[in-house]
Each structure stands twice: as C-alpha cells, then as structure tokens.
Specification:
Elements: H1 8-14, E1 21-22, H2 24-33, H3 40-50, E2 58-59, H4 60-69
Helix pairs in contact: 2-3
Keywords: Calcium, Repeat
Protein name: EF-hand domain-containing protein
InterPro entries: Centrin_CML-like, EF-hand-dom_pair, EF_Hand_1_Ca_BS, EF_hand_dom
C-alpha cells in the first residue's frame, strides 16, 4: 500500500464535502475548476478505475495507491 500522507493534502482538496471519499461529482467539479469540463460518464469511469473495493467512491488509500503507480 502507498504512503497516504504523501497524497492526503491533494485528496482533501478534491474531497469537497469532506466525507473521506471522492465521488464522481466531486471529481467532475475539480476538473471544471481546472478548466476541463468532463462528462458525468467520464468522471464515473475515472472513479471506477481507482475504486478497488467497488463502493463507487475513492478513499484516501485508493487514491494514494493509484497516484503512486504514477
């Protein structure tokens, strides 16, 4: 498992509602703020790629693991 502390600050920025998970909606909002307007379908596909436990959201551990693959 990747070191979550290296990615915690970035994760917290994306986790807009501060529930400890990143949803497709939060990802879509982030991308729009960055100037990249993606569809809900695309956001959902990205979340599914990172979501190793299948709950439909990205946890900090899943985010760190994905980012560490770089």
């Amino acid at each position: 498992m990747a070191d979550t502390s290296a990615y915690a600050a970035t994760f917290e920025i994306v986790d807009a509602n501060k529930d400890g998970h990143i949803s497709a909606t939060e990802l879509k909002q982030l991308m729009k703020a960055l100037g990249e307007d993606i569809t809900e379908e695309t956001a959902t596909e990205v979340v599914q790629r990172m979501d190793s436990n299948g709950d439909g959201e990205i946890s900090l551990a899943e985010f760190a693991t994905y980012m560490a693959k770089g």
